[in-house]
Design a protein that fits this description.
By secondary structure, the protein is α/β, with parallel strands linked by helices. The chain has nine helices and 15 strands. Bound molecules: NADP nicotinamide-adenine-dinucleotide phosphate.
C-alpha cells in the first residue's frame, strides 16, 4: 500500500439519535490526482448542524448513504496540482469529506480570501459569518431600536447574528438550552436578555423578555421554539428561516408549529427562507464589512476548535447536543 489516508465511513444511517457508533474509521490509500485534479490535505474540518440533516434525505445537496466517506466541508491545503489556478500551499475550501486527503476536480475547490487567522475562514470569514450576515440583514431587515430574537444563540451562526444585531442598534434576546449557556449569552456574548428553551414555557418567557413583541426572529431551530416565537411576533415582524436543528437528530416532531398560517396573516409577517449561496455575488462586500467589525473590536469571534482527526464523530454528536460555543471545527493537520 502507498501512503495512507484515514477516513470516517458513515457506516449506518441513524434512525434515531446520532452516535459515534454510526461511523467507522478506515484506512485507504492516498489518492493520486488525475489530469485536471488537485490533491488536497484537510487542515480544519467544519462541523455543521447540517451534517446531520444530510443523513435524512436530499436537502440543498444530495442525501448521504451508508458506506460512503462522511461528507463535510474543510479548509484544505493543496499538496499537488494537476489543474491550472492551484499551486502547492494554497488554502482552499472544499467538500473533502471526513478524510485526511482528497483528489478533487478544480471546479470543486473554492479559493479562500486572504484573511486570517486560518480558522476564521470557517467561522466569521466563511459560510458561518456570511449566513449570519445575509440572513439577518437581507431577510430579517432589522432597524435600530427593534427587538431581535435569535435561537441556537450561542452557536456558530447565532453568536454572530446577535452581535450584528447589536451593531445595528437593536435590542437582542438569545434563546439557548440550559441555565449556564443562558448566563453566558448575557455575560459574554452581548445579548440583552436570554431565554432557556429547556426550562419550559418558552412562549411565556419570551413574552416577558419581549414585552413589545419580536420584530425580527432569526430561526436556526424550527419546531417548538419557532412556534413560541411566532406567537410573540409584533405586527409586520420578519422571520428569517435559516435552519431547523430541532428536527435534524432523532424522530420527526409529532406536529408542525401551530399558528401557521393564521398568525402570519393577522400580524402581516414576512417569513423568508434563504441559503447563503443565494448571495454569492455580494460575498466580497460582506466579508469586508465583517472584517471591519472584527478589527474594530465590535464583533468577537467565537471558535471551538477540537484537536485530532479521530475526534470527528464525537465532535458532531456533541454539537447536536449543544456542547459548542461558537463555530465548532476539528483541526486535522
Ligand atoms: N441557510 C443557510 O444557508 C445555512 C448555512 C449554514 C447553517 N445554517 C443553519 O444554521 C443553523 C445553525 O447551524 P450551526 O452549524 O451554526 O450550528 P450551531 O448553532 O453551532 O450548533 C447547533 C446548536 O443547535 C442547538 N440545538 C440542538 N438541538 C436543538 C433543539 N432540539 N432545539 C433547539 N436548539 C437545538 C444547540 O444549542 P443549544 O444548547 O442552545 O440547544 C447547538 O449548539 C442550523 O439550522 C443550520 O442548518 C443554514
Amino acid at each position: 500500500m502507498g501512503q495512507s489516508n484515514r477516513q470516517f465511513i458513515l457506516d449506518e444511517i441513524p434512525q434515531g439519535t446520532l452516535t459515534p457508533a454510526h461511523f467507522r474509521l478506515a484506512e485507504a490509500e492516498r489518492p493520486v490526482p488525475a489530469d485536471g485534479e488537485v490533491l488536497v490535505r484537510a487542515r480544519y474540518i467544519s462541523l455543521d448542524a447540517a451534517n446531520r440533516a444530510w443523513m435524512q434525505g436530499a436537502t440543498y445537496r444530495s442525501a448521504l448513504s451508508s458506506g460512503q466517506v462522511m461528507a463535510g466541508g474543510a479548509l484544505a491545503e493543496v499538496v499537488e496540482s494537476r489543474a491550472p489556478g492551484f499551486a502547492p500551499g494554497d488554502i482552499v475550501f472544499a467538500d473533502t469529506g471526513w478524510q485526511e486527503y482528497a483528489a478533487l476536480k478544480a471546479g470543486q475547490l473554492t479559493a479562500t480570501p486572504k484573511m486570517g487567522p486560518m480558522p476564521h475562514l470557517l467561522s466569521i470569514y466563511g459560510v458561518t459569518g456570511l449566513t449570519a450576515y445575509f440572513g439577518l440583514l437581507k431577510c430579517g431587515r432589522p432597524k435600530a431600536g427593534e427587538t431581535v430574537v435569535v435561537s441556537a444563540a450561542a452557536g456558530a451562526v447565532g453568536s454572530v447574528v446577535g452581535q450584528i444585531a447589536k451593531i445595528k442598534g437593536c435590542r437582542t434576546v438569545g434563546i439557548a438550552g440550559g441555565a449556564a449557556k443562558c448566563a453566558l449569552l448575557t455575560r459574554d456574548l452581548g445579548y440583552d436578555a436570554a431565554v432557556d428553551y429547556k426550562a419550559g414555557n418558552t412562549r411565556r418567557a419570551l413574552r416577558e423578555a419581549c414585552p413589545d413583541g419580536i420584530d425580527v426572529y432569526f430561526d436556526n431551530v424550527g419546531g417548538d421554539v419557532f412556534e413560541a416565537c411566532l406567537f410573540n411576533m409584533a405586527n409586520h415582524g420578519r422571520i428569517a428561516c435559516c435552519g431547523a436543528v430541532s428536527s435534524y437528530d432523532g424522530a420527526p416532531p409529532p406536529h408542525g408549529p401551530r399558528g401557521v398560517p393564521g398568525l402570519i396573516v393577522t400580524r402581516r409577517l414576512a417569513v423568508t427562507g434563504f441559503i447563503v449561496m443565494d448571495f454569492h455575488n455580494e460575498w466580497d462586500a460582506a466579508l469586508k464589512e465583517l472584517q471591519g467589525w472584527v478589527e474594530s473590536g465590535q464583533l468577537k469571534v467565537y471558535e471551538d476548535v477540537i484537536d485530532g482527526f479521530e475526534n470527528l464523530p464525537t465532535a458532531l454528536v456533541g454539537l447536536l447536543a449543544g456542547e459548542n460555543i461558537g463555530k465548532r471545527m476539528v483541526k486535522v493537520s
